[in-house]
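#onboarding

Welcome to the new folks! Below is a worked example of what a typical request in this channel looks like: someone posts a single protein sequence, and someone else replies with the predicted structure as tokens. Don't worry about understanding the tokens yet, we'll cover that in week two.

Example request:
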Amino acid sequence: MYYYISIHSDDYTQKIKSEVLEHYLQEKLGFTKVRHLVFIKEINGEIVEITGIPANPNGGYGFNSLDGIEEINLIEIDLPRDIDEILEHSISEIAILIAKEFSWKIDDDHGLDD
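Example response:
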């Protein structure tokens, strides 16, 4: 099974520029850009990946490449397969920081224990 955290605006209507997300993740949260709208960071020995995505009004998406995408309305944090309590807490903090920065929300079904 594949777990991730989704962060987005209400009804997926508010968008942010890709360069704004890039700057925030790299400069404020210490992520490394691996390709357009895809960022990684090693936390507690595991790689955490964040992807900015252009989604439709229902939160669905489909794309072959993120190249050329200038605005996104969905951020997904992929959860590593081997996640412990410390890593879960760190990822939760990152999700909360991102949601607060862009005034977005974290999906209720976010893949982490409550």
